[in-house]
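The instructor's notes for this session suggest beginning with a concrete chain rather than abstract definitions. Hand out the sequence below and ask the class to guess, before any prediction is shown, which regions might be ordered.
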Amino acid sequence: MSTRVAGPESPIIESRNELVTYLEEGSKPKSDWRIGTEHEKFGFYRDDYAPVPYAGERGIRALLEMLHERFCWDEVVTERGSIIALRRKDCAKGGAVSLEPGGQLELSGAPLENVHETCEELRQHLAEVDEVGSELGIGFLGIGFSPKWTLAETPVMPKERYRIMMRYMPSRGKRGLDMMFRTATVQVNMDFADEADMVAKMRVGLALQPVATALFANSPFTEGKPNGYQSYRAEAWRDTDPDRTGLLPFAFEQGMGFERYVDCALDVPMYFVYRDGRYIDVAGASFRDFLKGRLAALPGVRPTMDDWADHLTTLFPDVRLKRFLEMRGADAGSFAALLALPALWTGLLYDKKALDGALALTRDWTMEERATLRDLVPRLGLKTPFRGGTLRDVGREVVTLALGGLQRRARRNRNGDDERTALRPLVEIVEEGRSAADRLLADYNGPWGRDIDKVFDTQAF
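After discussion, reveal the predicted structure:
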């Protein structure tokens, strides 16, 4: 979710057409398409595996201060005196570091030209975090769901929007707070050429998110024990605020485009409005009413484009449309997994032959089949039954399409390797039929002796 700062207000929205135009303006020629990778990770104290609170000499705030002082994070974002994010404006590896509700540290990477640059960005970020974290006794774990701590043990970050969401979430599903505080993801942001290209990529993305979830499944533990799932993060999302999550069935209907997405977003209940440096709770109200100046908490006040941009970040479908498309189905994981996700979607969506192949693969899938995959994959992963086989068979086809797309892109690093090298972990997963979750469970029941603390010792960055 974006981080707002106080500043001049953007123009008042005069009509629904402006909202459509806002999304349409994200269209770019292929030469300008970029890859933006975001990933979250859990901080923990290396001496006792406890979660890291915000305050204190060894807390998250101290870590952010050290990152700012030592590296080229040139902008500090605060909220009521608390540091909540760092930004880079002019550094070659830009982007932002911010906080998720339970203290998950997120890198929102810069828009980069190829997966090799993403690799360099990830290495740089993790090296920075490791350097300052080591001095504070803090480690970081890439996994989809907090493996040990209860919800009550998980710290709460000092961000007003999260307090609004904490109040509202339990009214719209049983797992919203778990989603906020105990999950971590990796996602990639992808560009589109025009409306038709956006629709094609959104349909492929929505259809294949369960496949991505299965390929990147990495959250088999809850509160110190196996939970019976491949991706408990994905299971938490299944019972989180149905008004703003899910598969977007309308995206597969005739007439899908920017206008159709706008009409959906207008009726998704809001969380907040940002005014004068503070977040005003309007949870449950619609943006459509806001357009008419009919919010009970702000009578007569009408929205700006900044408000619209904020609202779009509070929609959580499996693929989210802003001025780019966000692929949102994967658990956080190892360095290799963090790199494999942008490689997968770049290969599928940025090469016409691969995109056409993915469209052909998924075109006749029914809405019932897509929904069933989304329901079964969190527990069964690649073993999910599908059309006489399993999702592993589909995953193999998807990885093959992505490999072909990356080969045709032919973007090489200094060693002469193209971007296919980043897909090696997924090739191994579909060949063996074993996910990261399977490997964790084997270690837990084998060499770890069912000691969950070993996940921190062996899997930390």
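Then share the key points. The first helix runs from residue 16 to 24. The first strand starts at residue 35 and ends at 45.
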